[in-house]
Each structure stands twice: as structure tokens, then as C-alpha cells.
Amino acid sequence: MKTLRWAALAALTLTSPAAWAGDFDVPTVSVYGAIGVGSGDVVIRQNSTANFAGVMQVGPHVSAAIQQSGQYNAAMIGQIGQATSATVLQNGGSNNALVRQMGRLNNALVGQIGADNRARVFQIGPNNLAGIGQAGAYNKALLRQRPW
Amino acid sequence: MSLRALLIASVATLSLAVPALAGNAGVIVQSGGVNQAHVAQSGAANTYTGVQGGYANHSSVLQTGGFNNAMVGQMGRYNNAMVGQIGSANRAGVFQMGPDNLAGIGQAGSFNNAILKQWP
Predict the structure, then answer these.
(1) Do A126 and B23 touch (CB under 8 A)?
(2) Any CB–CB contact under 8 A between B28 and chain A?
């Protein structure tokens, strides 16, 4: 009887997480981060749900590119230097992109396809270029540019 | 000061003034309904171009400084566009195609230029 009780308890313990996971469909979570100083390029591609990608670069002539497909993505790029390039392409719903650049001759490009997208681009310095393209409903785009 | 020195000084000033006035440029393109675009540019010689397609889109542009250019195009109904410019020699253009749209342009300063065209 005691053995049967322990077996029932063990079976209940082992079956519960699987049942809960099946009910709520726990998404795959992935986090990616990169920090670079000097020169170099960063390319991140993710194709699953609930992703996050962050890139921080300091130096001239650096570039970062993030491409995400799926839902609940977020991307962040920070660049300090001149003649830098940042590209974010997201395809899915509830995406969020943030690009901050400080310096001159920088360019930022954000493309989002899907619903509830958010794109924010902040550039400090002269001769910068920013482009935001969004397709779908309920999108929001914020662009702020100012010199030194 | 001789005429030649004055000419050289003028050319040098002009060549330096162009990079000093070189501002930023921004482009936002949105397709679909209920989209929002907010743009704030400060400094001189900035350029912004925004295009929105669909219904109930909102676009706001604020430019402070002189020699700025802003152009907003909206296609659809229930759209609204607001452009504010502070400084001299600014240019604003708002073009809306569709019914029930709203547009507002405010400019403070001298030598500003505003164009508003709305089609049903």
C-alpha cells in the first residue's frame, strides 16, 4: 500500500509539468546580446517566439543587423561613433525595436510587418539618416533627431 | 579688404556653412490602419518625409530650427496630420487623399512656406 502511494505521488509529480506545459504552450525563450568596441559587424538572425536581441557598439564604421521572425520579439541597438549602420527587420506581431545612435553620418533602418509593432529611433548628431517602414495595423513609430 | 580677398572669404564662408547646416533626414512609411508616427527634429536643415496609407492614421511633426522641410502624405479616411515648425525658412507640405481628414500646420518665424492640399 505504501509502495502504491509513493508510485501515485511520483506519477502525479511527473505528469503535472507536462500537462501544464501542454495547456499553456510555453514559448521558446532566447536572448542574444553583443557588445563591441572598435570596428566590426554584428549580424543576428532569430526565428522563433519570444526573442530578444541587444547590440551595443562603440567605434566608427560599425554595423549591426537584426532579423527576427515570429511573435513577441524585441530588438535593441545602440551605437556610438560615426558612419555607423543599424538595420532591424521584424516579421510578426507585437514586435518592438529601439535604435539609438550618437555621432554623425549614421543611418538606421527599421522594417516591421505585422500588428502592434513599435519602432523608436533616436539619433544625436548631424548628417544622420533614419527610415522606418511598417505594414499592418496599430503600428507606432517614433523618430527623434537632434544635433549635438 | 580687396575685392579678391572678399570673394575668397565669401566662398570659404559658404563652403563652411553648408556642412554646418547639414541636418538630419528621416523617412517613415506606414501601411494599414490606426498607425501613429511621431517625429521631432531639432536643429537646422532637417528633412522629414512621411507617408501613411489606410484609415485613422495619425502623424505629428515638430521641427525646431531653420531651413527645415517636412512633407506628410496620407491616403484614406479619418486621418489627421499636425506639423509644427519654429524658425525661419521652413517648408511644410501636407497632402491628404480621402474624406474626413484633418490637417493642421503651424509655423512661427519668417520666410516660411506651407502647402496643404486635400482631396476627397
Answers:
(1) yes
(2) yes
Q: Model pTM?
A: 0.81
Distance from CA of B89 to the nearest CA of A (A): 18
The ipTM is 0.83
C-alpha cell of A68? Answer: 527576427
Q: How far apart are CA B96 and CA B73, in angstroms?
A: 6
Residue B12 lies in a domain: no
In a domain, B37, yes or no: yes
B103 assigned to some structural domain: yes
pLDDT, tens digit, for every residue of A20-46?
333 444 445 667 777 777 777 888 888
CB contact under 8 A, A135 and B32: yes
C-alpha cell belonging to residue A130: 533614419
Residues in Cβ contact with B42 at an 8 Å cutoff, skipping those fewer than 6 apart: A145, A146, A147, B63, B64, B65
For residues A29 and B20, give the distance between their C-alpha atoms in angstroms, rounded to a whole number: 47
Euclidean distance between CA atoms B106 and B70, whole angstroms = 12
Count of structural domains, chain B: 1
Phi, psi of A141 (to 5 degrees): -130, 135
Give the tens place of pLDDT for each residue, A69-125. 887 889 999 999 999 999 999 988 688 999 999 999 999 999 999 878 899 999 999
A28 touches chain B (CB under 8 A): no
